[in-house]
Amino acid sequence: MLVPSEVIGRLADARMLIGGEWRSSSSGAVLPSVDPSTEKEIARIPDATDADVDDAVHAAHDALAAWRAMSPSQRGDRVRRLADVLERHEDELAMIDSVDSGNPLTAMRDDVRGGVRELRLFAGLVSEIKGSSVLDGADRFSYELREPYGVVGRIVAFNHPLKFAAGKTAAALVAGNTVVVKPSEHTSLSAIRLGQLAEGILPPGVFNVVTGRGPGAGAAIAAHPAVPRVAFTGGVPAGRAVLRAGAETIKHVTLELGGKNPMIVFPDADPRRAAAAAVKGMNFARSQGQSCQSNSRVFVHRDISAAFTAEVVALVERFTVGDPLEPGTDLGPLTYREHYERVMGYVDVGRREGATLLAGGERVARPGFFVPPTVFGDVDPGMTIAREEIFGPVLSLITWDDEEAVVAQANDTSFGLTANIWTGDLVNAHRTAHRIQAGYVWINGSGRRVPGTPFGGYKQSGLGKESSLEEILSYCQHKVIAVSLQD
């Protein structure tokens, strides 16, 4: 049986993986990794300098020719082998993420499986990296090639550490790129362990792990002139910074950012089923609401609002908040102190602006960054809690009775990631889905995405699509070769 102290203890004095070597920061600087359940330091990670990032980029560049020279199927086989290894280490990796991030252990097991699925998905799509040909008479034709960019910078967020570090590098690797991944400074341990497990499968320099702060190591990756392709997962302000840095050398930048996602519940919907979907789609029990696709704004029709609201509150009050390693825990702590204070600040703002606190909202009297599942009723669409992404377990319920107005309110946001529509009238469902400004819309769903479907948002929710064929092709440059057979 795995013991948390032993699993984490092996990573207590962590190193970065650069060109097959495990290294400290060139400055000697370190950052604490804190268990958000206890607020105690469990490890120290290197705080990379610009020089460290430069070394990682050069190591990735040195490994590029040999990795690119492999056949696509050979690269796919390596990625499948990595998926197999992660699958065998599921419990260990889930425990690392649960202790490091605060997410429940059961959810982190699902995350490891999700990362494995992404690795296998892109390994299986490798044969789809292809182009077309055009004949222009008997002696002229052209054909397309899709070639890797080279060194890819992959900067990932704190809410799904291992899943993102593995799954969000898979497409770039299979396409023939080498990767420098920077995990969140708050949840770096599983990415470091991923680098250890990748040794012997991915050649040195193909997969590099650089740790440190976003404004430090992350900014250096985004600005590096030898990194032509950068992908970022995180918040809008940091995404803007990545985009600005990439503009200096005209990088291909993709961004998977935030959301203030609406769920519209029509009067013909079953209030019990819709309430269960709203609670599930909020990701209370998976990541404490720390999810970009959570349906944090629920617009429920006045005719069923009382029954719907009562069911939501009843479901939320059944959740158990506690130690994320305990099997019966539904919600663990938020990942780090600054984020905890930010979320609790939004709860205070909701009260001050006149929303009715229906559940949760109080600070938990124990060490750790725990926020109980919180539900506000009587929310006006113009309130701060209905407009700004909280990224925590705070759900806003908004009553409506005019269809035109509710669609306008759902779209009245700078975000456009996901949406959910609940109704038994499929004509109305499809008509509404067409009018909603979001990149992924469920009809009578609960937040589970169909594997292989493109995921990405409208407006300030990001640029580009992930988890699909579109993603793997985005890691390829498109070349046309025109041939003349004339003498």
Name of the CATH homologous superfamily of the largest domain:
Aldehyde Dehydrogenase, Chain A, domain 1
Class of the largest domain in CATH?
Alpha Beta
Put simply, the count of helices is: 17
The main pleated sheet reads as:
7 strands, mixed
User: What's the shape?
Assistant: globular
Query: Class by helix and strand content?
Result: alpha/beta
Query: What is the CATH architecture descriptor of the largest domain?
Result: 3-Layer(aba) Sandwich
Offer a concise description of the structure.
The chain is of the alpha/beta class.
Describe it for me?
Strand 7, helix 6 and strand 8 form a beta-alpha-beta unit. Strands 14-15-16-13-12-17-18 form a 7-stranded mixed β-sheet, sandwiched between helices. A 6-stranded mixed β-sheet has the order 9-8-7-10-11-19, sandwiched between helices. The protein folds into 2 domains: 274 residues, Aldehyde Dehydrogenase, Chain A, domain 1 (3-Layer(aba) Sandwich); 186 residues, Aldehyde Dehydrogenase, Chain A, domain 2, CATH 3.40.309. With 487 residues, the protein is an alpha/beta fold. It has 17 helices and 20 strands.
